[in-house]
Amino acid sequence: MSSLSCTKLTMFTIIGVIAQIIGLSLFVFGFFPVKPALSGFSGPESFRPPSFDSVRNENHSMANLPPDKLRSLYQELSGFPPFDKLILMVIDGLPAEFVLGKDGKPPRTELIEAMPYTQSLIANGMAVGYHAKAAPPTVTMPRLKAMVSGAIGGFLDVAFNFNTQALLDDNLIDQFFKIGRKMVMLGDETWLKLFPGLFTRHDGVSSFFVKDTVQVDQNVSRHLSDELGRYDWDLLILHYLGLDHVGHIGGRNSVLMAPKLTEMDEVVKMIHTGRILNQMNNQGKTLLVVVSDHGMSESGNHGGSSYEETDSLALFIGLNDVSGHTSSTKNTVYQVDIAPTLALLFGVPIPKNNVGILISETFGHLADAVFLHNSWMSKNLSRLEQGEEYSTVVGAYNEFLRIASEWLSRRATDKPVNLLAFGVAAMILSCLILLSLLCLICKEDFDTEKKCLSKAENKSMRTWHLDETFTVVVIFILVISMGSSSMVEEEQYIWHFVSSTLNLLLLRKALQSLQVARAESLFNLFKGQNKINGFQTISIALLLVSGRILRGWHQGGVNWTDLPDISKWLEQAGDDHVLKAIQLVAGLLVIALSLMSLFVLDLRRKPVAVIGFCFLTPGLLVLQHIMKNQDSMFAPSSFSTTTLVQTIYTVLGFGTLGIAVALPWLSPILTSKTCLYNSYMSASDHKELLLELRNSSFLIGWAYICFWCLLQLLLQQSINSTPILLLLVQVFVGMSYCFYSGPHHKQWVEVALFYYMGMAGHYALGNSNSLATIDVAGAFIGISSHSTVLSGILMFMITYASPMLAILSMVMYISVKGGNYLSLPLNVDSGQLLKRLLGFPCLLPLGLNSILLVAYTIVLILMRNHLFVWSVFSPKYLYVCAMTVCVYIGVSIVAATVIYTYWVLSFKRIMHGSASIKDER
């Protein structure tokens, strides 16, 4: 009897997982806390060096001042005549390169022609523009915070971006409100969530429904003419989302990009001609500031730290004198510099947590005029003659402020050491528990097989083969590579290398087993024992070929995304009709391959045909969706399209669940008529139980795999339809290889093979360790209105399509290896059988993931002061955490499915046995 019972194994596994969850949660909240901020709001002390007593007294005295008195006080203290009205136009996702060019070169011709009015303002010195570098993560909410508060938020703001809370820190909007300025907001409803109750009028739209590229901007512009004719506001915020949505759907080079830029140019023209050129003196001076929260990558996504994503725009239109600053279009400032600049231009205190500095060029000759005026008032004529010295001093101060700003922006937050230590200790403990259980399973598996094999075979078993050695060495390769930022950015190369190398080693083993010398002809290679080895050889060869195609499909990574690959070649060589044709063919092949594999086992045809029909129905609906939406990639989803997709979701969900729940109860109809019930717990009964378990697991595992691939054909970009087909081929071919594997092929090596293929497929679908490769557009397919939960689930499914497929395939793997358990002794209890069934398929993914999780946690701590800690290592850690969730979900489904199936089959036999005994009596 084994020393490790199934109950103990389950209990220790659960303890290990719980310890890992607790440790991971503590570490995440300790390493990524909300960045500390100074409480309260800036006051008069913002305009001069204060002492403690003066600050306390001033803040106390000004607390009771009415807004108009407070405004006058700030204006007097600032020393600058402020602007009266501000129009802040936010064009979401607009790269500054589209307006200002790059590296001293103008934008592309089509971009210049798309925004003629804006370009004329810059060329004529009527606007001054900057590349305003945004800090990662480059998503909307933290970037808006940076522009209005001048502060760099915490890294986990990328998660809070989907559930925006009110901004409590000091910021320009609150400062405007305190001095009685009236504010109006049109556009992205994120502003309403950040500043609830502060806007006199507002019309918010959802920023996450990225399929909408038209209505989302029309909802803003429809109020513009009316608001420009009003003078009852001091701040007008316009946040346009359409350009960002165009990027998410079609990338930087989308055919809709130029028309959208033209639409934005018309808005700039309307504001400039209607409010700035023709402004009335008694209504004060109006300043138009056109900004973007972030840029976008070549694929149109954002969130990472590449130049294309951090290259945001800051364009000032309506300043007094910018004729001498046309060269500033080549300058780079920081996004946090916008807050102090606007604060001084509008006579409000600079927010307390600001780390930005003034964009001095926006003040033009105003600063010099104030300096000369103050010199004349003080009769200090000698200072008038020291203009050059004055400029030198100002330059030195600016240099110091810039260095200080960069240091404060990069400064890591204080981390609670005890919390981090406890979190790491809990994850290490969890890893040791899971690895210990895995080692015990390996030992028991070895001892069991040793009893069933001859002496020669036992001697061979005690020898480590190359594939086994390499599978273990891979772990060390992955752990070592995590310490390099470049290897983290280009991790896809490691997984493709690991997967292909392990396949080559398995091919070598299969070829060595072929008895080629005794074969009289090529056909004899597939007779007798050679038949098994021949099928193994073909299976591994197909794995290598499909893996190589997947490797070349997407260049992936961060640094070399511009290199050619198959997806770029197809997109450049053909139009949307070609891509849709490829998607349609891939869909047909997925359906055909799935139906063919359904009839592999010798089962009754009618029930199998019913299952096939349950699969064919959503398959045909997916094909219908592909054909129906062939020409509407950029159009908002219609009601009929949304209804069709929701129908597919429903059929796929209920079809998969129905097969998994009902099939164990109907298992006798799957087997041949010769398999009849005998006396309770007889030898035949024991074999029939295992046979029914094998058949049910095969069909349920088949349903998981094939229905998941259909779902991915629906959600993934059309260019990824072929990789989905190839991943399905890899799973089925891998199952074929495992079916014919003998005792010299360790199960832990086979499970590791699927895990490695799943990770390689993850990058083959275009994913990387940058947040910019997350497919946001696909997360809204079939959703009629924005839902953070639903879109988040779909986004997770799209991102982890391949790893989840590999883990779900373990249900079929258990069935494929079911023949190994038919030879188990009759006295084996259910616990020992379930332990043999689920040991490697569940423990190995948990163990491998725990090693990588602990290793990367330690790496993140060591790299906490690294230059790329927030741009490279931290995004990677978020992916590691998400992969951990993926493993938990996948393993839970596998374990629950097999345990449920075995319980139903055992329950039925117990009930049948009881009925038989009663009949005999």
UniProtKB/TrEMBL annotation:
<dbReference type="InterPro" id="IPR017850">
    <property type="entry name" value="Alkaline_phosphatase_core_sf"/>
</dbReference>
<comment type="pathway">
    <text>Glycolipid biosynthesis; glycosylphosphatidylinositol-anchor biosynthesis.</text>
</comment>
<feature type="transmembrane region" description="Helical">
    <location>
        <begin position="12"/>
        <end position="32"/>
    </location>
</feature>
<keyword id="KW-0812">Transmembrane</keyword>
<dbReference type="GO" id="GO:0006506">
    <property type="term" value="P:GPI anchor biosynthetic process"/>
</dbReference>
<feature type="transmembrane region" description="Helical">
    <location>
        <begin position="647"/>
        <end position="666"/>
    </location>
</feature>
<feature type="transmembrane region" description="Helical">
    <location>
        <begin position="581"/>
        <end position="601"/>
    </location>
</feature>
<dbReference type="GO" id="GO:0005789">
    <property type="term" value="C:endoplasmic reticulum membrane"/>
</dbReference>
<feature type="transmembrane region" description="Helical">
    <location>
        <begin position="837"/>
        <end position="862"/>
    </location>
</feature>
<feature type="transmembrane region" description="Helical">
    <location>
        <begin position="697"/>
        <end position="715"/>
    </location>
</feature>
<keyword id="KW-0337">GPI-anchor biosynthesis</keyword>
<feature type="transmembrane region" description="Helical">
    <location>
        <begin position="793"/>
        <end position="816"/>
    </location>
</feature>
<dbReference type="Pfam" id="PF01663">
    <property type="entry name" value="Phosphodiest"/>
</dbReference>
<feature type="transmembrane region" description="Helical">
    <location>
        <begin position="721"/>
        <end position="740"/>
    </location>
</feature>
<feature type="transmembrane region" description="Helical">
    <location>
        <begin position="463"/>
        <end position="481"/>
    </location>
</feature>
<keyword id="KW-1133">Transmembrane helix</keyword>
<dbReference type="InterPro" id="IPR002591">
    <property type="entry name" value="Phosphodiest/P_Trfase"/>
</dbReference>
<dbReference type="InterPro" id="IPR037674">
    <property type="entry name" value="PIG-G_N"/>
</dbReference>
<keyword id="KW-0256">Endoplasmic reticulum</keyword>
<keyword id="KW-0808">Transferase</keyword>
<dbReference type="InterPro" id="IPR045687">
    <property type="entry name" value="PIGG/GPI7_C"/>
</dbReference>
<feature type="transmembrane region" description="Helical">
    <location>
        <begin position="419"/>
        <end position="442"/>
    </location>
</feature>
<dbReference type="InterPro" id="IPR039527">
    <property type="entry name" value="PIGG/GPI7"/>
</dbReference>
<protein>
    <submittedName>
        <fullName>Type I phosphodiesterase/nucleotide pyrophosphatase/phosphate transferase</fullName>
    </submittedName>
</protein>
<feature type="transmembrane region" description="Helical">
    <location>
        <begin position="747"/>
        <end position="765"/>
    </location>
</feature>
<keyword id="KW-0472">Membrane</keyword>
<dbReference type="GO" id="GO:0051267">
    <property type="term" value="F:CP2 mannose-ethanolamine phosphotransferase activity"/>
</dbReference>
<feature type="domain" description="GPI ethanolamine phosphate transferase 2 C-terminal">
    <location>
        <begin position="467"/>
        <end position="901"/>
    </location>
</feature>
<keyword id="KW-0325">Glycoprotein</keyword>
<feature type="transmembrane region" description="Helical">
    <location>
        <begin position="608"/>
        <end position="627"/>
    </location>
</feature>
<comment type="similarity">
    <text>Belongs to the PIGG/PIGN/PIGO family. PIGG subfamily.</text>
</comment>
<dbReference type="Pfam" id="PF19316">
    <property type="entry name" value="PIGO_PIGG"/>
</dbReference>
<feature type="transmembrane region" description="Helical">
    <location>
        <begin position="877"/>
        <end position="905"/>
    </location>
</feature>
